[in-house]
Amino acid sequence: MNLKSLFVVAGVACAALAHFGVVIPSNSTIDDQEQAKEIITYKFTHPFEGMMMNLDKPVEAGVFTNGKKEIFSNLIEKKDGKMSYYETSYSIKEPGVYQFYMDPKPYFEPAESVFIRHITKTIVDAYGYNDGWDEPIGLKTEIIPLTRPYGLYKGNIFSGKVLYKGKPAKNTIVEIEYLNTKGLKAPGDDYITQEVKTNELGEFSFAMPLAGWWGFSALNEDDKKIKKDGKEYPVEIGAVIWVETKDYE
């Protein structure tokens, strides 16, 4: 393989890595006051490989609970090397289901000539409330859980329904990755990002074989383009949800 071919292959491999918006709380279920002091982390990354992309300050980040949305104004910028990510703190004061979300500034991926906008959420249950975890929160695209999205064991099946502009998104690719904080190695590149497709109702299912955080990213082309340097580019709009599995202690 000549040097030019090597660079082409390397570029294709880099572009093929799945991008994921990340919204991760310090606790996915709340049972006491110490756990109720949540730290929410917002990133843009390749979860299994552990590679970070720069995250500009989100256009909007907040929490949806009891039918109301609260927008955060206290995001704090952090650094991982040269790459920015954000954190915020949030104290849960009463029982409820809390949907934390982020709508990021679209990220331009030159290798794919596309803007990426991954609207991301995760769902936390406080004090066994267990009501409203399947409620849409009005995002342009989102995954509505059909499986309760917390209190899950490794090996459980997670099922969801993808909505785009409030309607089921059929035949949509859903990319799935494990947030690899343990330095695990995949047997090959095809094992890093799992894929399923939604059915005619926009539904999908996947069994999660490891304990930890799993990201599900349902990808569609948005109905709006973004202009950059005098040229219009398509927007990959992703509905992303993160769920945590645990093992018996």
From TrEMBL:
It comes from the Bacteria. Residues 1-20 form the signal peptide. Keywords: Signal. Pfam families: DUF4198. This is Co/Ni ABC transporter CbiKLMQO, periplasmic substrate-binding protein CbiK. The lineage of its organism: Bacteria, Pseudomonadati, Campylobacterota, Epsilonproteobacteria, Campylobacterales.
